[in-house]
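Minutes, structural biology subgroup

Action item carried over from last meeting: produce the structure token record for Ribosome-releasing factor 2, mitochondrial (Theropithecus gelada). EB confirmed the sequence was re-checked against the source entry. Recorded below for completeness.
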Amino acid sequence: MLSNLRICAVSHQTISSVHINNICCYKVRASLKRLKPHVPLGRNYSSLPGLIGNDIKSLHSIINPPIAKIRNIGIMAHIDAGKTTTTERILYYSGYTRSLGDVDDGDTVTDFMAQERERGITIQSAAVTFDWKGYRVNLIDTPGHVDFTLEVERCLRVLDGAVAIFDASAGVEAQTLTVWRQADKHNIPRICFLNKMDKTGASFKYAVESIREKLKAKPLLLQLPIGEAKTFKGVVDVVTKEKLLWNSNSNDGRDFERKPLLEMSDPELLKETTEARNALIEQVADLDDEFADLVLEEFSENFDLLPAEKLQTAIHRVTLAQTAVPVLCGSALKNKGIQPLLDAVTVYLPSPEERNYEFLERISRLLLPFADQHVEIPSLTAGNIALTVGLKHTATGDTIVSSKSSALAAARRAEREGEKKHRQNNEAERVLLAGVEIPEPVFFCTIEPPSVSKQPDLEHALKCLQREDPSLKVRLDPDSGQTVLCGMGELHIEIIHDRIKREYGLETYLGPLQVAYRETILNSVRATDILDRTLGDKRHLVTVEVEARPIETSSVTPVIEYAESISEGLLKVSKEAIESGIHSACLQGPLLGSPVQDVAITLYSLTVHPGTSTTMISACVSRCVQKALKKADKQVLEPLMNLEVTVARDYLSPVLADLAQRRGNIQEIQTRQDNKVVIGFVPLADIMGYSTVLRTLTSGSATFALELSTYQAMNSQDQNTLLNRRSGLT
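Output recorded by EB:
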């Protein structure tokens, strides 16, 4: 099962004798037994990495290639930009597969879950390993749907570089912005691939401009397209001034020719390429001082004399510094431009030794991942990505150490070294590798097993799925005793429900999907409470006074403060119980039973009878805080979503009219080629089931993307309507 397989990224540096690894879980399957029989599984796989024809390399070179020859990359993009199709072509041209898979046919290597093949989308990340021209490439294909954005987050944190794929007819889209921000957060060098250059409406210039304007990035044009849309037939390599043309008679895109541009045969294209190359040289020189010195000293008179290798080396440095992004183009579906993209991955993206990692990892049993297959290996050197088996108590974001004492010793050493270096690099903070920021769920629903006897099986299934997917939250409703699923969206919960059925054989029942509201208070209130209870021959007596007040800064958890009158001695023995009681009280607000946020709780008085248990202290504090929250003026907060709708001009009016009925707030209407892009905000409660309505309004031609923006206060009328509906009055 997936929960017993973990993918590890191995760092390239060692701190003394401490061996630490960062665990990141991706989709890997030991078998495909759970897939539906009708799903085509018969793929022809070629040799494993390191095996070229009948020439078998040494086992050491297969398992442990030189670290400078390793590339750990991720594929990221907006949904339907062509990530999985590009990955499929990469695997084919690298010799990993012997036939081209297709998303529509449901036979791609990395989309091997039944749910992915049926829907034609990537749901979980998948890892594959292959070789390209002497380089070992560990590639992870990530989802593009906003419901599964955590999958992208937990992949990027262990990768050295990324390929951002764009639909050339759409440019930067909603989820593109999200994954780009995630890459910025983890300081991931990246290159851009403008896919679908053969598509009607494809525009190289528009796509590049959207990267510059929307992502605030500096694109380095390493290629120019030869034709666009139906006339697209190849690319020009700006660095080498060569044209790459694919054989129109070739079915798989393997056959293409690379020819130098000549004045006699291609005068206009040569002129355009020369201008583009000169502009590229000037752009790189502005960003890299070493390259600027080289150009000024040796090639200022004639840029044509500048060797391509010198320019590539400078672009590599600029890419690593993340001051600009190389841009390439092609069409994965039409099998054009993938081989140059692979070359760019090896030339411009970093090896593990060029990235700043802190630790080396050592694990007993290791496997090399090949999507739904794996091969056991005896050892693994730094810089690689591999699979480990049997870590039953680990989850995404965990740091694994050889022992607690060695970890503490490393922390102390790192702290001393950090002080010596004037805290230039605070190693003490990096002994534990960065975890994953898990977004808060916005939807929830109840889930019930087919019978009471199956409840333990359901709990086991949910426990396994939570380890695999930290964005899935499961809680128990204290009033009804029902199990509640909390997820990132309608599709997310639908997939979880389907997986429970397919993978664990449980026919569960879901309650109606509900929005995850939150609550807050509008004024300061004080409350007191006394708990006086005798259990056996022991009396438990607690007196508490607290104040609850609203705060301006957004905080999901309550801010806890203590008055000066609270003695340090009492606080020392009771602090944990006090804070546990406050957190417990804020889990369920007085209006809807939703979590309370943006509040500060101040403890003004606490009197404890000798012998009173900490459990009683916690219970009394919790009850007192609940009293204060009930006394205050209360406010419901609802999730507000960023919405982006791409629609043809002819359907713009009905779409805008429909959004107005959904309490939508339109911020901007942009023009994207022949389409209009509506950007705005809309409450999540009013956008449920929107995909069906939008298809009806636009005859299936429009697309939309949603992302949580913030939680906003409901107006009094909407809040009263919601409360009446929840209480059964309407």
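Discussion: Residues 267-287 form the longest helix (21 residues).
Next step: EB to file the record with the rest of the batch.
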